[in-house]
Amino acid sequence: MQRGGGGLDNAGGLFHASGLFRSAFTLAEVLITLGIIGVVAAMTLPTLVQNHRNKVVETRLAKFYSTFNNAIRMAEVQYGDRKIWYSDTGGVDLDEEGKPIEGTAKIDEWFQKYFSNLIVIKKIIKTNGVLRYYLSDGSSFQFGNDDTVLTSRELVFFTGHPDKCPQDGYGICKFQFEYYPIDSSTGWKYLYNKGLEPVKVGWDGNRNTLLNDSRIGCNTKARDGAKYCTAIIQLNNWIIPEDYPFKVRY
After folding, report:
1. Are 171 and 218 in contact (CB under 8 A)?
2. Nearest-angstrom CA–CA distance, 232 and 199
3. Is residue 19 part of a domain?
4. CA–CA separation, 124 vs 156, rounded Å?
5. Residue at 198 is within a domain
């Protein structure tokens, strides 16, 4: 005897109270579902990609900072206080064709003496004397600033290959550091007797200055490049903060 709204069909199977059994989605439902999945993917995939880029950049920045400063401490064991052997040097000898002569770059001589324990897989001397050092994790660095300031106090770290990073890529794919432990004047107080540090020359100690400075602040309008961006990330324990104005890459 049949009870309620459902029962058994002739084959002994269960059937719906209405007498209809829906065994599959309709074509319209499938298309709607696929459309929703596509929209969600389009919204989330760029975020996932950028999150991965952030993680790679954060890791490489922190590793480079730690490795370089460990090298400074190791050099002090052999050569004494860093202020004694630091040299604000630069320049390279050129041949008759104006090409740099291998082994004559003053910065490289200084670097090889005190930092030869850093793992450098390749180095290139450019025609203007700028040296680039390539590291095993795919990052690289050079002494100097925008290929013009050839001194050991300025250092640009590239999170990837430098040829893929544009001139105005500060805070995106290249990050400025400084090593200048010998100057105790007010403008350099955050670097005095320190190791390698993010650019903090002229900084007043206020985070808003790092973000909004018109010359080198971490913003899109900085006249000389967003060089304070390195310090912004460092202040957040080498994690890119929520209010960071750029999308980093490597």
Report:
1. yes
2. 10
3. no
4. 14
5. yes
Contact of 143 with 150, CB cutoff 8 Å: yes
- Say what the pTM is: 0.79
Among the listed residues 230, 228, 234, the one whose alpha carbon sits nearest the alpha carbon of residue 208: 228
Question: Is residue 29 one of the residues assigned to a domain?
Answer: no
Total number of domains in the chain: 1
In a domain, 210, yes or no: yes
Decide the pairing of beta strands 197-198 and 131-134.
unpaired
Listing DSSP states for 117-138 in one string gives: TS--SEEEE-TTS-EEEE-TTS
99-153 pLDDT, tens digit per residue, is 767 667 788 888 888 987 777 778 876 656 677 899 989 999 998 776 665 678 8
Which candidate, 233, 221, 97, 242, places its Cα nearest to that of 176?
Answer: 233
CA distance 58 to 15: 59
Longest dimension (CA), the chain: 109
What are the tens digits of pLDDT across the range 187-221?
999 999 999 999 999 999 999 999 999 999 999 99
Backbone angles phi, psi at 233, to 5 degrees: -70, -40
Beta bridge partners, 94, equal: 100
Question: Residue 98's domain spans which residues?
Answer: 56-235
